[in-house]
Design brief:
2 copies of one chain form a homodimer.
Chain A (H helix, E strand, L loop, with lengths): L1 H8 L2 E10 L2 E4 L1 H13 L2 H7 L4 H15 L4 E4 L8 E4 L1 H27 L1
Chain lengths: 118, 118
């Protein structure tokens, strides 16, 4: 009977994932998108723009995470030959991106397998 | 290096899970808690009270889900010998409870395994 209900309802699991440290929210989808965009563009300005986030808000996101974990997640620098400066994701920032993506991917695998069963 | 970062940060995955039908939110943690409480108490009034939800709000939660999926998730009845009436979770309601719990349990398994790896 559950099979009939499952097929009729055809429900899909959705979720919001985030990472906490000692019960405090540290890193969610917004920060993930921002860090990835900074990583791809090599700049906080360009990265924030790419995902439709203001420069000021993006700095707030980065600062809040760095304050909670007590480590830098991006390094900013003033540009050399081409000017304009840029931003580089630190190893800690890369770890956050990878950890978040990994858990999310596992969740996606569960959600898909689960549909096959129903 | 990731091992050192992982140990220092000691981040735990957290999530909110919900079920959608054709892109529409159907069933999340609040409805899950409510249905379980109704199932345990055999009454909408007692179930809502148990999780600190008003009777009116609880009815709204139930009605909204039933409207979206086009099926009943609880049956209510006027009480017999002992009076007072009650509510019984339908097979569709039981399916929602079980499906939600099952995915959530798999997510918990992922989150725990993942910590062991890090």
């Amino acid at each position: 009977m559950d099979d009939g209900i499952a097929k009729t309802l055809n429900l899909k699991p959705h979720w919001k994932l985030w990472l906490e440290k000692d019960g405090v929210y540290v890193f969610g989808p917004g920060a993930y998108d921002l860090l990835r965009a900074i990583h791809e563009t090599g700049s906080l300005t360009a990265g924030a723009k790419k995902i439709g986030m203001s420069y000021r808000y993006a700095w707030g996101v980065i600062n809040k995470i760095e304050k909670i974990i007590g480590m830098r997640i991006i390094d900013t620098f003033r540009g050399g030959a081409v000017g304009g400066g840029g931003a580089r994701i630190t190893d800690v920032g890369l770890y956050l991106i990878e950890r978040f993506a990994e858990v999310n991917k596992e969740f996606e695998r569960i959600a898909l397998n689960e549909e096959d069963d129903s």
